[in-house]
Amino acid sequence: MTEYSIKVQDELRIWKEKMLKQSSLINRISKKAQTKVNKLIPEKVHTVMTESIKNMVKATLVGSNVTTKKHQTIGMNLYEKDEMLKEKLSNYRKTAVIEGAGTGAGGILLGLADFPLLLSIEIKFLFEAASIYGFDTNEYEERLFILHVFQLAFSSDEKRRETFHIIENWEGEKQFLVDMDWQKFQQEYRDYIDFVKMLQLIPGLGAVVGAYANYNLLDHLGETAMNAYRLRTLQN
């Protein structure tokens, strides 16, 4: 095992502890409040939102698979792949910042348009990550893994721990996965980003909030993706 692999394993242990840590009191209270609000929303509304986001994500998956460059990384070591991912992440962060500032500056209407635009940037980045680490996104199971990495990044503490278990034991768990729980998927994502995205709709404040929020969301997704693919790479 190389010195870099040992370093990565140490970082993965710290990351695992972070993923599995007990929810803070504030997070538990916040989640309970969000759950109560979601229960007040009519089931028909949940169904419409679920179908809309499901179709949006699936369309993005197809588009990203077609447009994402397939990286030739055979022969590259883990350090080189990590460095390539960091470079790609920097580019995607810049794109997300520009998009967040632009839609945020536009007030409510453009602020609402930020949701599908940001989602497409995030999904496309995950396709890049899969390709860099040598996984074939033409395979259904790899697209399903991408969605679980996305869910790991943008979920409540309880759902995050559940999703981490699936990712850590992917080879054994994937055979039991047919599709995503799309209602849970969209609800967890919306709950995760709701507060900051509401601030983005405020005229005069939206541009700054949008840029800052999108930078941090991509940064968090980048850390999650890199460690998820590192985990799979070292297990192979």
Can I get a quick summary?
The chain is 81% helix and 0% strand. It is built from ten helices and no strands.
Describe the SSE topology.
Elements: H1 3-20, H2 25-40, H3 43-67, H4 78-105, H5 107-132, H6 140-153, H7 157-168, H8 170-173, H9 182-200, H10 206-235
Could you describe the 3D structure shown?
With 236 residues, the chain is mostly helical. The chain has one domain. Helices cover 81% and strands 0% of the residues. It has helices at 3-20, 25-40, 43-67, 78-105, 107-132, 140-153, 157-168, 170-173, 182-200, 206-235. Helix 5 (107-132) runs parallel beside helix 10 (206-235) and helix 9 (182-200) runs antiparallel to helix 10 (206-235). It is globular, with a radius of gyration of 18 Å. The two termini are 13 Å apart. The model is unreliable at 104-112 (pLDDT under 50).
